[in-house]
Write a structure and sequence with these properties.
Shape: globular
Mean pLDDT: 87
Helix content: 25-40%
Low-confidence stretches: none
Oligomer: single chain
Strand content: 15-25%
Largest sheet: 5 strands, antiparallel
Number of domains: 1
């Protein structure tokens, strides 16, 4: 888990062209309340985690799901362990930036493409982590992560995808 978060932090700084970001927290839900995630293992089937910055209410969720092989309905390409990333309820630019960086970090770590099954981020179903990074990267001088993530969100322009 630590490696994924460290990679996500590095990617987030590079994608937003900023030098620092707030401290990232990982939470689980216990009886409907956020609790700091203290385990070191991520990727267990059934895991549901919330990831965000300590100073912010915004966050994203990730779920780990196993899809069993069931030919002819579920093929070998579709079966396996899948990680789903969901932007939070607020759908803020901060949430989109965290989700993008996390998707890139996970895909790079697995040597896989990013799959956007709803084609919200991209017009095609699959995109390489590098192409996704290049599509969303912003250049410029930003005062803070809020300003930089707003620039990335404007570049994403969900209404045109």
């Amino acid at each position: 888990m630590h490696n994924i978060i460290c990679n996500m932090n590095d990617i987030l700084k590079r994608i937003l062209s900023i030098d620092s970001i707030p401290e990232v927290s990982v939470f689980t839900l216990v009886n409907g309340k956020r609790k700091i995630f203290e385990d070191t293992v991520i990727g267990l089937v059934g895991q549901y985690l919330l990831i965000g910055f300590k100073e912010y209410e915004e966050g994203i969720s990730i779920t780990i799901t196993e899809v069993p092989l069931q030919l002819p309905y579920i093929t070998e390409d579709e079966a396996g362990i899948w990680t789903g990333i969901s932007v939070g309820v607020k759908k803020s630019s901060i949430e989109f930036a965290i989700a993008a960086a996390l998707a890139i970090a996970i895909a790079q770590g697995q040597g896989e493409d990013i799959i956007d099954d709803a084609c919200i981020w991209n017009k095609s179903l699959k995109i390489s982590p590098l192409d996704f990074f290049n599509k969303l990267s912003v250049k410029g001088t930003y005062k803070n992560i809020d300003e930089a993530s707003n620039a990335m969100f404007e570049k994403l322009n969900l209404s045109r995808n």
